[in-house]
Every structure is written in C-alpha cells, then in structure tokens.
Description:
Helices cover 22% and strands 27% of the residues. It contains 4 helices and 11 strands.
Amino acid sequence: xxxxxxxxxxxSRARPGSLARTLKGISQLQYWNFxxxxxxxxxxxxxxxxxxxxxxxxxxxxxxxNISAARNMGLTRAAGEVVAFxxxxxxxxxxxxxxxxxxxxxxxxxxxxxxxRGRNGISFQWKAAxxxxxxxxxxxxxxxxxxxxxxxxxxxxxxxxxxxxxFRR
Length: 169
C-alpha cells in the first residue's frame, strides 16, 4: 500500500526551543507523504523559520492560549486524508507516523492513538483508556505487540491523547 497523505499538526505556545526539537524529530520520520502545519505564537513561528527545512512547513500564527482552538486552526490548513497531532513537548520516534497511520488501511477505522512515554523515555505517561458518561477515564488493555482496535462498551467512548492521535478527514 502507498502512504496515505497525512497532515501533521503541531501546536506551540511559549516553548520555541521545545518546538524546534519536536520539528527536528518530525523531519526524521520514516514516512514520505506528509505535510507539517505549525500553529504557534510569534516566538514559535520565529523558531520554526530558523530550521533548515522551514520552507516545507505551513506556519500558522496563533497567539491565543487555547489548544483546542489552535488545533482547529491547524485543521483548517490540513490537506491530508488523515490528520495527526503531536504536541510541542513531544519528540516522535522515526516510525511514529507509520505506526499511527497503519490502522487506516481498514476503511472502518476513524481514529488512532498510541502510547506516550514520559519525560524519562522509559515509563509510560499514557497507554489507552475509555471515558464513561461522567468523563472519568478507565484503563483499557492493549496488545503491546500489535495494533488493538477498540469498540467501546455501551455508554463509553475511547479516549484519544492529544499528543499522539490521528483522525480520518
């Protein structure tokens, strides 16, 4: 299968150094059909413009402390079949996007997510959870060797984690 076209959205506010690390990691992804949309405050836009590959970035100025509105702004600029999100304080592993996008080979997959390691690079900050009607998260069991497809129990929703999620447009 050929790589689906993906838009990677990175939102940043008041962390230009961290954003530069995230973008450097994205530049080393082992996936070939993607664009990068950076939604950032003036310092973040300036940091992105100093990178060797800045001409390949879609830069969207946004200086409001509202991550949801910033992500939505990124969506308005996305051209990919799939939109993936990563935060400016995360650094993706080289195969991150390939693994995140792989389940979209199935037509019935609408969203994907993945594990998030903590700042120490060893322990997990996030694995998988469902939300009940009150918004309380409940851990879900996953297979650490293969992609796990979840169908939430009645009255529950599968929770995605903002720094490692993707959605079919």
